[in-house]
Amino acid sequence: AQKITQTQPGMFVQEKEAVTLDCTYDTSDPSYGLFWYKQPSSGEMIFLIYQGSYDQQNATEGRYSLNFQKARKSANLVISASQLGDSAMYFCACSGSARQLTFGSGTQLTVLP
Amino acid sequence: DTGVSQNPRHKITKRGQNVTFRCDPISEHNRLYWYRQTLGQGPEFLTYFQNEAQLEKSRLLSDRFSAERPKGSFSTLEIQRTEQGDSAMYLCASSSISPNTGELFFGEGSRLTVL
Fold first, then answer.
1. CA nearest A14: which of A70, A73, A83, A61?
2. What is residue B99's predicted lDDT score, i.e. its pLDDT?
């Protein structure tokens, strides 16, 4: 079984600045995937970025990057040049031998003008 | 490709009534998932289908819950004798590959309110 811990219930960032959202995970599976999803107030879960446990390099997707530190079991999301539209709930998730994702409790990000 | 479609988007019902939600996955996706999300929490896994076979069920899925995917395409989630604790967002997701190698595509969810 996997466990995801997101210790920041809420975060504030100034527009155009970078922000890091923390995520630690616990899994006994040798192979797993780490995901970040964005959920705006409309409710839809929007995929942002994926990191495989055997990937050597940190994943990047546009303004999103995943800071993967395997030994520390952390998978922090970095958003560069924040925009007002980035204000949303952000969820970290992990997959493993179970054929589904386990989600954390989320971080509410607010981007200030 | 119109994405994952769920309906109804909102359902208000009285305690004790039955409700059914429908999910239409992305057409070529053989994997389909149901999740439940309560306010302020992350989604919690309910059940998983590969084609028409229901391969995994969470203990959250009590006897009052039943899910089907009769022809390996759309899926339904039925809740019988609803309780106030069933009030939540019910999310459907689909994929064509293992979650260990790629993303799940989510629908916009069906929000249930039990009065």
1. A83
2. 57
Q: How far is A97 from chain B (nearest CA, A)?
A: 8
Is the CB of A105 inside 8 Å of chain B's CB atoms?
yes
Spell out, as residue ranges, where chain A has pLDDT lower than 70. 98
Report the distance separating Cα B45 and Cα A91, nearest Å.
14
Contact A99 B104 (CB under 8 A): no
B43 touches chain A (CB under 8 A): yes
Task: Report the percentage of chain A scoring pLDDT > 70.
Answer: 98
Between B33, B103, B111, which is nearest A100 by CB? Answer: B33
For the CA atoms of B93, A43, B43, A93, the dihedral, rounded to the nearest 10 degrees, stands at: 80
A99 shares contact with chain B (CB less than 8 Å): yes
Distance (Å, whole) CA A5 – CA B42? 11
B94 neighbors B4 (Cβ within 8 angstroms) = yes
Number of A:B CB contacts under 8 A? Answer: 68
User: Rounded to a whole number, what is the distance in angstroms from the first to the last CA of chain B?
Assistant: 36
List the structure tokens of B58: 């969470």
Q: What pLDDT does B103 receive?
A: 77
The whole-number mean pLDDT for each consecutive block of 10 residues of chain B, a chain of 115 residues, reads 89 97 93 93 93 89 93 94 96 79 84 96
